[in-house]
Amino acid sequence: MKEFLSRSAEETRGRAREFAETLQRGDIVLLVGTLGAGKTEFVRGICDVFHCTASVSSPTFTLLNIYEGVSKGSAISLYHFDLYRIESETELPAIGFDEYLFGDGVSIVEWADRFPRFFPKQAITVQIEPCGENERRVVISGGKSRF
C-alpha cells in the first residue's frame, strides 16, 4: 500500500505519472472517490505517461473513452470507464465492459466501488479523498501494484 497527500491538481497528476510508470498491459486500475475528488486528474497523469494525444475527460455520459498511446515502443489502448450512471452490474456485460476490461490494454475505471464484485482480485485500487479545499489523500493498494 502507498499513501500520499496531494496539494494540487498538478501534484495529483505528477503522482499518477509515477504510478503509471509501473503499469503493464492487462492491468486494471479502480478509481474510488466522491464527485470532484480528482479521479479524472489522476487519469490525465496516467495518460501523460502513455503519450496519449486525445484530450482526457470523464466519460460520464459515454461510459467509455479509449485513448491510444505507446508503451515500450508499441501501441497500447487505455480504456477509461465511468460507471457513475450504470444502474446495475447486469448492464456491464451488455455494453461489452468485460471485453475491454480483460483485453490487451490498460483499464481505468472511475466509480469502481459501485460494483466491487465485478473486478478481479489483481485489480489495483486508487482511493482519492478530499481532505481540504485543495488537498487530497490518495491511497493505492491491492492487486499487483508495483508502485
UniProtKB/TrEMBL annotation:
GO terms, molecular function: ATP binding; metal ion binding
Alphabetized Gene3D superfamilies for the sequence: P-loop containing nucleotide triphosphate hydrolases
Annotated TM spans: none
Localization terms from the record: Cytoplasm
Keywords: ATP-binding, Cytoplasm, Magnesium, Metal-binding, Nucleotide-binding, tRNA processing
Protein origin, superkingdom: Bacteria
Pfam family, one: TsaE
InterPro entries found in the cross-reference section: P-loop_NTPase, T6A_TsaE
GO process annotations (BP): tRNA threonylcarbamoyladenosine modification
CC per GO annotation: cytoplasm
Coiled coil (UniProt feature): none
Endpoints of the signal sequence: none
Family membership noted in the UniProt record: Belongs to the TsaE family.
Name the record gives this protein: tRNA threonylcarbamoyladenosine biosynthesis protein TsaE
Species lineage: Bacteria, Pseudomonadati, Chlorobiota, Chlorobiia, Chlorobiales
